[in-house]
Design goal:
heterodimer, A: 420 residues, mainly alpha, 3-stranded antiparallel β-sheet, 18 helices, B: 637 residues, alpha+beta, Penicillin-binding protein 2a (Domain 2), Beta-lactamase, 6-stranded mixed β-sheet, 5-stranded antiparallel β-sheet, 22 helices, cell shape (chain B), cell wall biogenesis/degradation (chain B), PBP_dimer_sf (chain B), cell membrane (chain B), cell inner membrane (chain B)
């Protein structure tokens, strides 16, 4: 407790305020999305999702106090052990896991369940920070890059077969700390180009894209015709790109499953049945569009009350914000998230310890991926990927996972005067 | 770069997502209405349609409840079609067809499956209805006619069609709307405004209570009752007299322009166009292209006016100062004009005649003389023609009357432009004699019965009239009648000039062409008319028996009624039209009929044989055998 009282003046109250704001606004919307419009259910009835969420929030405050009272060094020291425990808990799901709505992602304790993948993010962030901040680790070395990659990929590999590919996708966020610490920009360019080519090819068909690649390659060749070395790259890269473009349709048709293809097609505006495949996205867009500038008002959303948007209290919670609080309310929520992430990045940059900085970047990246994919999906610009909106979506594990993730950083940041 | 990459990506993503929200919530308004359809359902409460009364407060039209079976296609769950078809007494194919049509109209909005069930059918169906999801029963009200006449001006109500719905968003599929007559003209007044209830639905289409606590719901506004200017006794009597005849009668109250009777023969029972039988009966009436019962002859038929038109020529001549009422003209069995001795024939009567006996005896030669003077008064026949037309227009001729009934025809009054085109002026010249038929109401001029009745009312009033109208009051308030029916129209003829014409019409009843149909105790002024008319048989012009025409007003001073009667192919004026006019005047003024001899004549005589003649395919006699008409002679071919 001594360290808690000594350090509490150094906590970043901006982050804490943003956290409180997001959690409370989130709860208000969960209340709206889950309260029975006809019923007269008691407020303190744990059959109500909003009552449960209130309990989760209360417990998360206990977690906050617990984390803040630990010694800041604890996390760096025990990072590896926490990571190993986390991996074991993920593996344990294959034996003891409980199947809820098609995914074996939970340990079940009576009517509550714990989802270890929500906690594995924090563990991985700690482990990666610990490994990269090791004096002997050199991000530019291929071997060390590979090791870092294994640390990141291991939990993801455990999560994919649950199956919960959405949660696994979040591990792409660790690219950001790696890049910050000196990973070559080639990865960044290769990654972005690959994604861009993939999406563009699906949207416009391979012919236009190949024509585009050829034009760009010719332009670059002409511009750099006086260069004496490295010209081979100008031939190889376009050829590789073109080969990739040709393979896109094959990957899309053969590697992807039908539901994945459907989700892409919904976003790309291809002709799909809005009553079955596109239903979620469509109803969610209707709900948001329904809000207009100022929204329909608390508890007055017709889409929300009519339960037209499936999973509205979890992954689609943002559609409630859109419908009941309108453009103003949803912009506020986006601003709060952006503010939180930017604050974390700014704080991370000011850390003296490399460990804290890497950890800060990791959680900023994780929050970002959740934020982008979730709101992108709800507003119909991203394919449907089942990941929650941090602090907003209903669920104890999710809330606690993000609380732990965030407050470890708050603790690390408060200790920066002791860092060297 | 390494320090700002994530920072900028976060910022850019935030801006892009906000932009997407801006598009969804502010720019694209289509999503908002989608949700209205999605989660909120409207239920309608139809008010009672207003009742219709006659001028004496007799109820003509009231309401009866009816029940429509409606469907919302997307809510239909698989159901026992056999049982359902049994309940509705329809076959399966028809049901499937209706459902398909309903889906085409809209999967979300209700459409009619079976319209207008009676109370007893409804009672039987009501308890079983809940078994069929997506179907429901909508209560509406149908017309209940207390009378079996007057169908032409009452109009009827029918389901709205796609065009109505498109034109006016008030109407939904299955709503009822006035068609023709008073029902159309005063649709908004009669129908009231339907009430709306918004009910919020969840995704399983279960009610979860009123939307916005019912603040948007509205109560129905009941339709207003109308009182018409029609005297239902007179209307009924007139329709009885017109049985087995074709033609139109319009009776007006000269002092107000109120339509006392508007008769079109043949007519039909308005109850034929109510409920489920409406469509079948309508088709039958619609395709009767010979008798044309749906054609309102009182408003729409354009007839040559014949001799009653002479009264107008007399008035114009007096106003133009080309003749005085004392000057007499000789008649040698007609009027000779032109260099080739052309003749406008006349019947036997004393000669020479001045204006008053000229009108009473309907002398063609007199009016040919007078008419020529009017046209030739000016420097050119063109100018004279236009002055002449201008006078006529002040009586409401040559254009739509502007009555408060949705149908009507303008009739035709020729002007100089018309004759210039017809005679290819200025290549060829034309003179007043070329238009001489106008002097006796033949040739180019044509009028509808309501126009001629209005002319009669204007003569009765000695120079002014109110535009004929059928609305007397709304909910007993007369000040709701449109301004135009409360504004006096003044003719171009000065009041003093009417006296000789009125005297002439009075003379017609006392010693002239209508002397045989006098009504004891009433000073009637009238004018007979016998108008030649033609039809086409196999593309050839063929003359038919003359139309019997009569106009009259009574009493001579302070007139209560002005009437115009057209009986198609009834031959001379006093034969049918004059008798009918006299009987109706007596009925209206005395309340009973004393000339039962002429009543018997009218009731026992039919013109159906006359109407069958042109359809026989053989030459036929017209005008009581004075002429043979029909198939042209071989030499002419």
């Amino acid at each position: 407790m001594s360290s808690f009282s000594k350090a509490y003046g150094n906590f970043d109250w901006v982050i804490i305020a943003l956290f409180l704001a997001l959690v409370s606004i989130g709860w208000i919307n969960i209340y709206s999305a889950s309260v029975d419009p006809t019923g007269v259910a008691e407020f303190f009835d744990f059959d109500n999702l909003f009552t449960r969420q209130l309990l989760f929030i209360a417990l998360s405050f206990l977690i906050v106090i617990f984390i803040l009272s630990l010694d800041a060094k604890f996390f760096e020291r025990f990072a590896s052990i926490i990571y190993v425990i986390s991996i074991v808990s993920l593996l344990g799901l294959f034996v003891f896991g409980k199947n809820i709505s098609g995914a074996t992602s939970w340990y079940s304790f009576g009517s509550f369940g714990i989802q270890p993948s929500e906690f594995a993010k924090a563990a991985t962030a700690l482990a990666l920070a610990k490994y990269l901040s090791d004096i002997q680790t050199d991000v530019k070395s291929l071997t060390h890059q590979l090791r870092a990659f294994v640390i990141i990929a291991l939990p993801a590999i455990c999560i994919v077969p649950q199956p919960d590919p959405g949660s696994a996708l979040v591990y792409a966020a660790f690219f950001f700390p790696l890049y910050r610490e000196g990973l070559s920009g080639v990865y960044l360019i290769t990654g972005s180009v690959t994604i861009a080519l993939f999406v563009l090819t699906l949207a416009f068909g391979p012919l236009y894209i190949i024509a585009g690649i050829v034009l760009i390659a010719i332009a670059l060749l002409i511009r750099n015709r006086k260069k004496r070395f490295g010209k081979r790259l100008y031939y190889i890269l376009p050829i590789v790109s073109i080969l990739f473009v040709f393979s896109v349709n094959y990957i899309f048709e053969n590697v992807f499953e039908q539901r994945h293809r459907d989700r892409f097609n919904v976003v790309l505006g291809k002709d799909v049945d809005m009553k079955s495949i596109g239903y979620n996205t469509y109803q969610s867009e209707i709900a948001i569009g329904n809000g207009g500038l100022a929204g329909k008002g608390f508890l007055k959303g017709t889409q929300t009350k009519g339960d037209f948007v499936p999973e509205q209290h979890t992954d689609y919670i943002f559609s409630t914000v859109g419908e009941e609080w309108g453009f103003l309310g949803s912009t506020l929520v986006i601003a709060l998230f952006v503010g939180l992430m930017l604050r974390i990045i700014v704080l991370a940059e000011r850390q003296k310890s490399q460990f804290s900085r890497i950890y800060g970047y990791s959680i900023a990246g994780i929050l970002f991926i959740h934020f982008l994919i979730n709101i992108g999906m709800v507003t119909g610009v991203f394919p449907t990927v089942g990941i929650p909106l941090p602090f907003f979506s209903y669920g104890g594990s999710g809330l606690w996972g993000f609380t732990i993730l965030l407050f470890i950083f708050v603790k690390l940041d408060s200790d920066r005067i002791n860092q060297w | 770069m390494r320090r700002i990459l994530l920072f900028s990506i976060v910022l850019i993503s935030g801006v892009l997502l906000t932009g997407r929200l801006f598009y969804l919530q502010i720019l694209d308004t289509s999503y908002a209405s989608l949700s209205e359809n999605n989660a909120i359902k409207r239920f309608f409460d139809y008010p009672q349609r207003g009742h219709i009364y006659d001028r004496n407060g007799n109820l003509l039209v009231s309401n009866q409840p009816s029940y429509d079976v409606m469907v919302i296609p997307r809510e239909v769950k698989p159901f026992d079609t056999l049982e359902f078809c049994g309940l509705l007494k329809m076959d399966k194919e028809m049901l499937i067809n209706r459902l398909k049509k309903a889906r085409v109209y809209s999967p979300r909005l209700p459409s009619i499956v079976i319209p207008q069930l009676t109370k007893s059918e409804y009672a039987y169906l009501q308890e079983k209805m809940r078994k069929y999801e997506g179907f429901f029963i909508q209560k509406r009200s149908l017309r209940d006619y207390q009378i079996d006449f007057g169908a032409n001006f009452l109009g009827y109500i029918a389901e709205v069609n796609y065009k109505d719905i498109e034109d006016n968003p008030y109407y939904q599929s299955g709503d009822l709307k006035g068609r023709t007559g008073v029902e159309t003209q005063y649709e908004k007044t009669l129908r009231g405004i339907k009430g709306v209830k918004y009910i919020q639905k969840d995704r399983f289409n279960r009610d979860i209570g009123p939307y916005k606590n019912g603040t948007l719901d509205t109560l129905p506004v009941p339709g207003k009752d109308l009182t018409l200017t029609i005297d239902s006794e007179l209307q009924k009597y007139g329709e009885e007299l017109m049985v087995n005849k074709r033609g139109g009668i319009v009776a007006l109250e000269p002092a107000t322009g109120e339509i006392l009777a508007l008769i079109s023969a043949p007519n039909f029972d308005p109850a034929l166009l109510v409920g489920r039988e409406r469509s079948r009966n309508f088709t039958k009436l619609y395709y009767d292209s010979i008798a044309k019962p749906l054609f309102d002859r009182g408003l729409q038929a354009q007839y040559p006016p014949g001799s009653p038109f002479k009264t107008l020529n007399a008035l114009i001549a007096l106003e133009e100062n080309v003749v005085d009422s004392e000057e007499a003209f000789a008649c040698h069995g007609g009027y000779y004009y032109g260099s080739h001795g052309r003749k406008l024939g006349c019947h036997h009567h004393p000669s020479p005649l001045s204006m008053i006996p000229g009108i009473a005896n309907s002398c063609n030669a007199y009016f040919a003389n007078v008419y020529r003077r009017v046209i030739e008064k000016y420097n050119s026949p063109q100018e004279g023609m236009d002055v002449w037309k201008n006078h006529l227009e002040s009586f409401g001729l040559g254009g739509y009357m502007g009555t408060d009934l949705p149908t009507g025809q303008p009739g035709f009054i020729p002007d100089s432009k018309y004759y210039n085109r017809a005679y290819e002026y200025p290549k060829y010249k034309w003179f007043s004699t070329a238009t001489i038929s106008n002097s006796i109401g033949q040739g180019e001029v044509s009028l509808t019965p309501i126009q001629l009745a209005n002319v009669t009312a204007a003569i009765a009033n000695r120079g002014w009239f109110y535009t004929p109208h059928i609305l007397k009051s709304i909910e007993n308030q007369t000040d709701l009648i449109p301004e135009e029916y409360r504004t006096r129209n003044v003719t171009t003829i000065s009041p003093a000039n009417f006296e000789p014409v009125v005297e002439g019409m009075f003379g017609a009843y006392n010693y002239g062409t209508a002397a045989g149909i006098k009504i004891p105790g009433i000073d009637i002024c009238g004018k007979t008319g016998t108008a030649e008319n033609y039809t086409r048989i196999d593309g050839h012009r063929a003359q038919l028996t003359d139309h019997s025409i009569f106009v009259a007003f009574a009493p001579k001073d302070n007139p209560k009624i002005a009437i115009a009667v057209f009986v198609e192919n009834g031959y001379w004026g006093s034969r049918y039209a004059g008798k009918i006019a006299s009987l109706m005047i007596e009925k209206y003024i005395k309340g009973e009929v004393t000339r039962t001899d002429i009543e018997d004549y009218i009731l026992s005589n039919s013109l159906e044989d006359e109407y069958a003649k042109p359809l026989s395919g053989k030459p036929f006699p017209i005008n009581d055998g004075k002429k043979i008409s029909g198939v042209p002679k071989k030499t002419e071919l």
